[in-house]
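Following up on my earlier message about coproporphyrinogen III. Here are the inputs again, as you asked, copied directly from the submission form:
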Amino acid sequence: MNDTFLKACMGEKTGYTPVWIMRQAGRFLPEYRKIRAKVDFLTLCKTPELAAEVTMQPVDILGVDAAILFSDILIPIEKMGLKLKFYEKKGPKFSNPIRTQKDADKLKIINPDEDIPYVLETIRILRKGLNVPLIGFSGAPFTAATYMIEGGSSKNFLKTKRIIYNDPQLFTSLMEKITQTTIAYLTAKIKAGAQAVQLFDSWAGALSPNDYEAAAFPYAKKVIEALKPLGVPIIYFVNDCAGILSIAARAGSDVIGVDWRVDMAEAVKKVPITLTVQGNLDPCVLFSTKTHIKEMALDIIKKAKAARAHIFNLGHGVLPETPPENVKTLVEFVHEAGDI
Ligand code: CP3
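Thanks, got it. Here's what our run produced:
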């Protein structure tokens, strides 16, 4: 098995920089769209053979050094008791969002074996066939809470922040339940065979540093601490992290994922040498020329040399319109750039 990615997670020296791409199993690949044309998104997530197939596509097509399980951060939330629908243009929507203490009290902490057997089965299928490590993932508790409170995606997260400021008891009880669910969910994924896990804090960057430290950080830290004894590398990705990176880096993860809005040299300075960094090419650079893509990738690789180890990735998910051949060029270039 190619274990370059796992070695870099733990800070070991590798001959080249391992690379994988957030949202690599998805719509930018025609091979994914072909399967999606036949089934809706949630059915795809819940059908192990198909979910395993789309998980493997980017490994075969792009030559990345890790696979990420095809699923979604909203799957465990649905099982806590929210009604989830995905709409083609509007994205995910929960029709019964959490607004009151009564809403939160009704939520349950999931039992993975009963509630998400298809996720665990997908992992077992994948571990038989994959020749690269398999990453399991979850939303970080704050990011999960934004979907549960807003009922979908949001621009200002006003409903979430109103609850943080005006009903701290509701917010805390909701976060505790999400945290327990996240721990149960990721523990089950690891036991089923996930060889690393990534916590996506996609919307934590919408918080001020003070609010991040009070309302998001402690819960992410609690999840990470609970998973540590299981012995697999833990990646904590915080989108829009520039203002909160030095706090996020104290959550206890082995790897910190950074978005592109922060220069890699600056990011490395804010992160203790006991962590590996992951990132951070702007996904839009993949719409540029191959020469420019290589230049920007090389700049990141050089700057990340000051960290204990580096896993190359984009600074957020690959966009659906991205030309697949440019992603392939990027992966090949990162591999060839070697130990500069
Ligand atoms: O390749 C992979 O990364 C594995 C699969 C994966 C998906 N979602 C599949 C997906 C992963 C890791 C996610 C994580 C996820 N889901 C996040 C965190 C990462 C991030 O981008 O910040 C978030 C916030 C979600 C919630 C979500 N899922 C939204 C807002 C949407 C609609 C917008 C969009 O990107 O389409 C989804 C749908 C979704 N999740 C798709 C895929 C492939 C598209 C569904 C389709 O095929 O139509």
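One observation from looking it over: The first strand starts at residue 67 and ends at 68. Hope that helps, and feel free to reply on this thread.
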